[in-house]
TrEMBL record:
Annotated source species: Weeksella virosa (strain ATCC 43766 / DSM 16922 / JCM 21250 / CCUG 30538 / CDC 9751 / IAM 14551 / NBRC 16016 / NCTC 11634 / CL345/78)
One Pfam family recorded for the sequence: CBS
Protein name (record): CBS domain containing protein
Keywords associated with the record: CBS domain
Keyword Transmembrane in annotation: no
Lineage of the organism: Bacteria, Pseudomonadati, Bacteroidota, Flavobacteriia, Flavobacteriales
Gene3D superfamilies: CBS-domain (3.10.580.10)
The keyword Iron is assigned to this record: no
Domain of life: Bacteria
Domain (CBS): residue spans on this chain: 63-124
Length: 217
């Protein structure tokens, strides 16, 4: 999950000498909200689409007055890139090597595709939102409860910590989801929400949709 695996090496950065119109066109062609800016080989920061649009109405637009300097290295993970995207409200983060040489960019869609292909997202299973006192939270205990019902834990995600409680989203593959929920509650967990989705449900939905199309051609 290092950024080096997802770099778009052909991503074209902007140059300080380019006009706002040229930079905006380049941004739209690459479908990004920000553009890494360079003066010769020197990285000077990232320019947003919003600032570029404002620059169209200025007689003397100086991009260095508006750039934000964020980036990741090829030795950081996609989680670092995702954190940057969230913090700077961008769908692109430039990537550099440890010698500060520009390598390309990592894009938000690639990170979405990466996580969407994991078992936690892609596999069929039951999704449960649990709430537990933060001091009692144990990922080992969660896994043990799931596996004690001959079920498989596909993944877990800590969503938020509010005061003294933590909410955890888990996904399991099980034919006994009700018993798992009851066991969690016996161990002090609150089952806030649960949603069950499996292959049988998908098959029934497909057949139902086909029936509706047959009735209403």
């Amino acid at each position: 999950m290092y950024t080096a695996e997802y770099i778009h090496k052909d991503f074209i950065p902007g140059k300080r000498k380019q006009s706002p119109q040229e930079l905006l066109r380049l941004m739209h062609e690459q479908r990004v909200t920000h553009l890494p800016m360079f003066e010769n080989l020197q990285f000077i920061g990232n320019l947003s689409e919003e600032d570029l649009v404002d620059g169209l109405e200025m007689e003397n637009f100086i991009c260095t007055d508006y750039v934000q300097k964020f980036m990741v290295t090829n030795e950081q993970t996609v989680l670092d890139a995702l954190r940057m995207m969230h913090h700077y409200h961008t769908n692109m983060v430039p990537v550099f090597d440890t010698d500060e040489r520009y390598l390309g960019a990592i894009l938000q869609n690639d990170i979405i595709d990466l996580f969407a292909s994991t078992p936690f997202i892609d596999d069929f299973g039951a999704t449960m939102l649990l709430s537990i006192a933060t001091t009692d939270l144990s990922m080992t205990s969660i896994a043990n409860i799931v596996e004690s019902h001959n079920s498989k834990l596909l993944g877990s995600l800590i969503l938020r910590q509010v005061e003294d409680h933590t909410k955890v989203l888990i996904k399991v593959r099980s034919e006994n989801i009700l018993s798992i929920g009851e066991t969690f509650e016996r161990f002090g967990y609150q089952v806030v929400q649960k949603y069950y989705n499996d292959e049988k449900t998908e098959l029934l939905n497909d057949r139902y949709n086909q029936l509706i199309k047959f009735i209403n051609p």
